[in-house]
Amino acid sequence: xxxxxxxxxxxxxxxxxxxxxCHFIGxxxxxxxxxxxxxxxxxxxxSGSDMRDSSVTEQLRTLGVDVSIGHNxxxxxxxxxxTYSTAIPSSNIEREAAGQLGVPVRHRSGMLASLCAxxxxxxxxxxxxxxxxxxxxxxxxxxxxxxxxVIIGAxxxxxxxxARAGATDVLLLEADESDGTLDVLxxxxxxxxxxxxxxxxxxxxxxxxxxxxxxxxxxxxxxVVVCSDDPGSAPxxxxxxxxxxxxxxxxxxxxxxxxxxxxxxxxxxxxHLVVDQQEYACSLPLRGDHNAMNFAGAVAMALAxxxxxxxxxxSVRNFTGVARRFTERGExxxxxxxDDYAHLPAExxxxxxxxxxxxxxxxxxxxxxxxxxxxxxxxxADSYSHCFGAADSVVITDVYASGTARIEGVTGKLVSDAIxxxxxxxxxxxxxxxxxxxxxxxxxxxxxxxxISMGCGDIETLPDDLRGxxx
Length: 471
Prior knowledge:
The protein is of the alpha/beta class.
């Protein structure tokens, strides 16, 4: 029997139609800095604190944000609202001081909800593909004469800290379900890329994950876009069946935006879409069928907002991609090095499939994976058993904590053992440390190979570590 998690309760909205003095605890975090940047651009007075300086805090300072290093109760004395993230404990001295002074305190999701309430907000939600879909949709809306403000969860060329301020009241944002944020956002429109198993530490069961997305879709008054092919999204399609605001995308014949075929080119993909029985050929400078699906979802939402399909397709021809999404990072021993954020089984499978289409591949696909979060691997290690099957060689390293507590007996070897059990003939190496990975790849990689390193932790530095080992 499924259990219902304690859902995040909506906090009272902050009136952002008037200038507010907004303070952010942990302002350098990837979820906090974009909100701070956008509020600053909209004329609010923004300050914040963090434990260390970074390129993000420096960018915020150049925008006029007052950033302090270290936490200090005095920082919240003259502000109108204090915002904190899930990572900031209630014992934080600035949170405590705000409570004592009677200053309104909001979780990150509450401030994001206030931004949505003061905008026509388009949320991009789903387990996989949110960031790329958001970036593509931003280009389409802008090309269609809608200049949205954008909040995005990764580095995109031209955005700096993950946000940009647009000229209209439209706000396009990633709507993350992992900590209940999606539960509280007042959205005008919603694109759901897909629904897969994740964040069971918060939701308890996959049925609860699905219910979160169904609930969000039913609250939306404007357009809802979902994938016609995704089994996990079936409850959303059923709940909104017959609703004229529902659009779909995918390869299914019933899809509003149907992918007829996908051709691999030297520059990426040529995606053939069918809309209203007419076919359109769209060039997309990304690799992998999963990115064709992200593209189709973005097109479906752009069409719902009145952007002509030819304008939507043309807008992405020069798209430079999103950081850590199949990003080429040079070569080592003649092998192409690719860095990717993939950390769930479906994402890994898609990334390896994309590597198979790389024009430089004449040798082997080598997949390196850093598992993420102890509770995720404790619950899901066996689910990684089949997603590496298309690789020629696999290297698994230890778990990156991402702030989670260590669980006795939970290591990356659980993933390695699961792959070996399912694919006894596949070359699988357990390389516990970064030095172990570098030594393994130094002796293995050859010209013509494509090495794709995956995970949402510090595995992103592996290409640099490999090349540094030669110096």
